[in-house]
């Protein structure tokens, strides 16, 4: 079921949007849950913050709820703008808040892939937003640094194929005007500029894990970026999640839980689905695991697309799209690493794993030879 905005649903008591967790009152949360279809009245709320760390474009809080009437969840997660001014500014520049609120309202109901239950989602202007969602605290969240096991990888790729197949080849007819093209767009321009600014910082922080072969093609790679981005935008197109990594995956452990839930849709794009596949396998999977299961995992994704109704997309094209997307996603490695706060220890560790895994994939698959296609 799509999530209506307060304007469409007439829920005026939900505006203005709460700017801080202090404004998440029992009355407001009652209205938000009622908007999502629950007949409840919240009598008390206890707020606890969590999720602080690298790359946080949003602030996250868990609201523990007590009810005067009705039966609702014992807790919900509330997502609001980042309290960090720089992170919030970056999120606004990339339209992250608009993209996430809008995809929950308009798109996730169309896919069989499991996403968090959304009780309420709203956006005012570019910066003020709030999402009240299912609390997945009883699930096990993935760890980007440790990386995915073969079993976890299989679950992720199965869910990825479900997500992609729902929009495959028809994203343009569905509308979704809030989702930018990979290229040309504010997204592609900012990523190109970020690669230029961030390469040297990335190289310095990466140290010995940056192979000399990749360091040597800096100028060639940067010059080829627009052509790479243009290729990643061409058909067959679907909704690209844009951040398919372990920290955004929740794995079920108990009876009644779904095997995997996909979260965090602030980076959605229009483009080739292999973008997400390449992002996950080359950055979230340990090198030896990827080497042992790479072909199998690409084939699993392709089979999942066919099971979801995708036609006219062959296994060999899937493999070649995957290879070229791995090369293209070195842009992400450079931008993220180049913008990293060097004082964040977990962030540095995450960055080094990302550089090492991605660079090793590029060399294993001899992808530097493909640069000539984009020059």
Q: What CATH architecture of the largest domain do you see?
A: Alpha-Beta Complex
Gyration radius, rounded: 21 Å
Give helix and strand order, one letter per element, not per position. Answer: HHEEEHHEEEHHHHHEEEEHHHHH
Tell me the count of domains. Answer: 2
Kindly describe this structure:
By secondary structure, the protein is α+β, with helices and mostly antiparallel strands. The protein has two domains: 6-134, Phosphorylase Kinase, domain 1 (2-Layer Sandwich), CATH 3.30.200; 140-374, Aminoglycoside 3'-phosphotransferase, Chain: A, domain 2 (Alpha-Beta Complex). It has helices at 6-9, 26-35, 85-93, 96-106, 150-167, 171-174, 186-206, 212-215, 218-233, 274-283, 287-307, 315-328, 330-338, 345-364; strands at 41-50, 58-69, 75-81, 118-124, 128-134, 140-141, 238-240, 249-251, 260-262, 269-271. The strands form three sheets. Strands 1-2-3-5-4 form a five-stranded antiparallel beta sheet. It has a three-stranded antiparallel beta sheet with strand order 6-8-9, with helices on one face. Helix 7 (186-206) packs antiparallel against helix 9 (218-233) and helix 11 (287-307) crosses helix 12. The longest helix is centred in the middle third of the chain and has 21 residues, at 186-206.
Provide keyphrases for this structure.
about 375 residues, alpha+beta, Phosphorylase Kinase, domain 1, Aminoglycoside 3'-phosphotransferase, Chain: A, domain 2, 2 domains, five-stranded antiparallel β-sheet, three-stranded antiparallel β-sheet, globular
Present the secondary structure layout:
Layout: H1 6-9, H2 26-35, E1 41-50, E2 58-69, E3 75-81, H3 85-93, H4 96-106, E4 118-124, E5 128-134, E6 140-141, H5 150-167, H6 171-174, H7 186-206, H8 212-215, H9 218-233, E7 238-240, E8 249-251, E9 260-262, E10 269-271, H10 274-283, H11 287-307, H12 315-328, H13 330-338, H14 345-364
Antiparallel strand pairs: 1-2, 2-3, 3-5, 4-5, 6-8, 7-10, 8-9
Helix pairs in contact: 5-11, 7-9, 7-13, 10-12, 11-12, 13-14
